[in-house]
Amino acid sequence: PPKGKGPQGKRITLKMAKNAVRVLFNGRRRLELSKMGIATFPKCLLELADVEEIDLSRNMLRKIPNIIEKFQNLVWLDLHSNQIDELPPEIGTLKNLTFLNLCNNKLTTKGLPEELTQLRNLRTLNLGLNCLETLPTTLGSLKELIELGLFDNSLTIIPKSVKKLPKIERMNVKRNPLPEFAKEEEPIDTVKRVESLYLVEKKDLCSICLQTCKGERDELHRLEDMTPGPSDKPRFPLLTTPNSTARDNQEEWRMK
């Protein structure tokens, strides 16, 4: 196949990478390589290993190489919506990391290295939409965690060490086969209530989100079809004409 095509995905050159660096309002430098068709971690990024933030979301990455340890200044790392099934132990060397988004990948419990718990400054960790069946109890050592996303996995238990994280404010465990959710059967509500409305182009949605949106739309149409039409309204034909008493007094009540 021609250069740059095929299983390796899009080839990122050093020049492209340098042009993808943005300076944020807080002075941090972010390497923005989202939605670039990248299938393998570009080695040329080592030339930019001093950046504080990297966005490699919405690509086709399967592996994060051990050279990630060279990015010691990283504070923010976004890898959501890739094909990643495991993390390298070297992820634990990124001591300054406060934000790590791994949502919508293929991570299994075995794919989470024990070294992940060395990220003691981590405040946001998103593991939602993966293939996790259990959580390492050692995640309870991430004492600075404020946000933890665990939604849409196969978890049947949340370890006590994780539940009792001292600074946790938001923990999303929705859509897991947890026993506490099995007991709570929500009442059927035929009226769909919209609390927030977000407009997004179809091309910007990952396949799972697009499928969810289509499902919601189909459900809304189904509910609309169930709504009683004009023909179902009750009719009271006797009220269409005044009765004899009203007819006799109609001039009087019309004047009033």
Automatic annotation (TrEMBL):
Residues 223-256 are annotated as: Disordered. It comes from the Eukaryota. Keywords: Leucine-rich repeat, Repeat. GO terms for cellular component: cytoplasm. Coiled coil: none annotated. This is LRC18 protein. The gene is Lrrc18.
